[in-house]
Design a protein that fits this description.
4-stranded mixed sheet, 12 helices
Length: about 325
């Protein structure tokens, strides 16, 4: 069985530092970044040294444990970490989990639980796929994004191990190329057949009958099922709907935010326009929101959830 990256290679707590695999450097360089304060970790989250909603949550948990061990003001540490990436609800969830027990042991349990959730949701998603599936995925929802194994990419790993997955189309995912750099790297390590495509090539592949489903992760899922994910996911959802293809959102229950009623209430992070172009004016929203009616199913560690999502997702969180 392919295990993917070991969780401690992605993010871990050592004496005096949270250590992160620098995802900005992959796949060309393997570089680690040591964050010795909560503020330094917040900067690493903002600048996407570590990224992906579950992995950000795990890193934040380690950041609170580090702050407690170092004698930092915990309220200030929580505030600076909470502000680092506003769309990813797992960040706020992890900080709240750590509030009453800000220990290294608790943070490591949160990390282990996140990886275990990924394995369970991967198994549930693989149950949805038929032999010979050709899947298209967007951004990176692998072990790098979750702290181990992965959500959407974890599902692809499990499906491949079961002999169900024939091929993966990997959106490059502009402007920072998380698909071309990170997802392709993880699939290559797992020996899963794949090809990187320009984001704008997805429609023609669907029209040609070369895609069977779209599988992505999410950074926040509202109570009604509206889901925020990397910019470009909404476009894929519209295309998939037009071509009669299912879109599956794979994410842990920690990504479901019942306090957010719908997608309009999800804060969308705007990043530095220079990531798009350093020469001209630009807009750089990091995420978009896919309406629930375009989502065939949301898969969590508790199973496959279908519309009406107000009921099915509430049950997942309660579980």
């Amino acid at each position: 069985m392919s295990e993917g990256l070991a969780p401690e290679r992605i993010v871990r707590l050592e004496e005096g530092a949270v250590v992160l695999l620098d995802q900005r450097k992959l796949p060309d360089e393997i570089v680690e970044v040591r964050c010795k304060t909560a503020a330094a970790l917040a900067d690493a989250i903002t600048t996407m040294v570590v990224r992906g909603a579950p992995a950000i949550g795990v890193a934040a948990a380690y950041g609170i444990a580090l702050a407690a061990e170092s004698g930092e003001d915990l309220a200030a540490a929580e505030a600076v970490l909470r502000a680092s990436r506003p769309t990813a609800v797992n960040l706020a969830w992890a900080l709240e989990e750590m509030r009453d027990e800000p220990t290294a042991e608790h943070a490591r349990r949160i990390h282990a639980d996140e990886v275990a959730r990924c394995r369970r949701m991967a198994a549930h998603t693989a149950d949805l796929l038929a032999p010979g599936t050709r899947a298209l995925t967007h951004c990176n929802a692998g072990g790098l994004a979750t702290g181990g194994y992965g959500s959407a990419v974890g599902a692809l790993l499990t499906a491949f191990e079961r002999g169900l997955l024939e091929h993966v189309w990997v959106d490059e995912t502009r402007p920072l190329l998380q698909g071309a750099r990170l997802t392709a790297w993880e699939l290559e390590a797992a020996s899963i057949p794949h090809a990187v495509i320009a984001d704008s090539a997805a429609a023609s592949l669907m029209a040609a009958g070369e895609v069977d489903c779209v599988i992505t992760g999410a950074d926040r899922i509202a109570a009604n099922g509206d889901s925020a994910n990397k910019i470009g996911t909404y476009s894929l959802a519209v295309l998939a709907h037009h071509h009669g293809l299912p879109l599956y959102i794979v994410a842990p229950s920690t990504t479901v935010d019942l306090a957010t009623p719908d997608g309009a209430a999800i804060p969308i992070e705007e990043r530095d326009p220079a990531e798009v172009t350093a020469r001209f004016r630009a807009r750089n929203p990091a995420f978009d929101v896919t309406p629930a009616q375009l989502i065939a199913a949301v898969v969590t560690e508790h199973g496959v959830h279908r519309a009406p999502y107000l009921a099915s997702l509430a049950g997942a969180v309660a579980a």
